[in-house]
Amino acid sequence: MQQGLGKLFGVTDWIARLAVANVLWLLFNLPIVILLLNMMVNGVNLAVSVVVMVLTPFIFFPATTALFACVRDWTLDRDQHSIVRSFCRYYTGNYRKSCISGILLTAVWTIWGIDYYYLSSRNVVLLFAFLMFGLILFVYTIHFFSMLAHFEMDLRMLWKNAFLLTFGRPLLTVVISLISFVILYVSMNGLLFLIPFFTGSLIAFLTFSAFYRWYLNFI
């Protein structure tokens, strides 16, 4: 009986952690979330897209770094007396690095998005090429967040090591891609309640866990 209650408590604790972290992540990204919802309802708007692009380095990147830092603590079994306090501490503590990197990565993502929008429809080869590059860029971004949350490195080393990991560990790249694709697909095709409560935090937790497992094997 007690063992069963212990397992139940463990499951509910993890559900609560993931939900709280995901809600915090969305709240810190609230201006971007509102603008994206506006575009989903009213269609893509150039002015709104530019505002989202400008806000992303200064809102999305620090918030996502904080999310990865929180799930890192869970992976390492580090106690968090308050997820809210931990999230805010990591948000402010890594803000400068996150913003600088966010400017660079947002620029790359913007170039990819524009090229994909205007060129991918021309032929299947271009479509496949842009999808592959987008997938690699996504995994690179995930690796960057994991490394920023886990290591004390300067930005040049973080960028370099994320690049080497993306191309040097193809199995890890495939695993992270599959994890993210499955969660996003399920979230957007039937289980929409996952988006406000679990989608972001689940991707962060599972992809960081895969990264950390590789790291333990590497050392």
Automatic annotation (TrEMBL):
It comes from the Bacteria. Keywords: Membrane, Transmembrane, Transmembrane helix. The chain crosses the membrane at residues 20-40, 46-71, 99-119, 125-151, 163-185, 191-215. Pfam families: DUF624 (PF04854). The keyword Transmembrane helix applies. This is DUF624 domain-containing protein. The lineage of its organism: Bacteria, Bacillati, Bacillota, Bacilli, Bacillales.
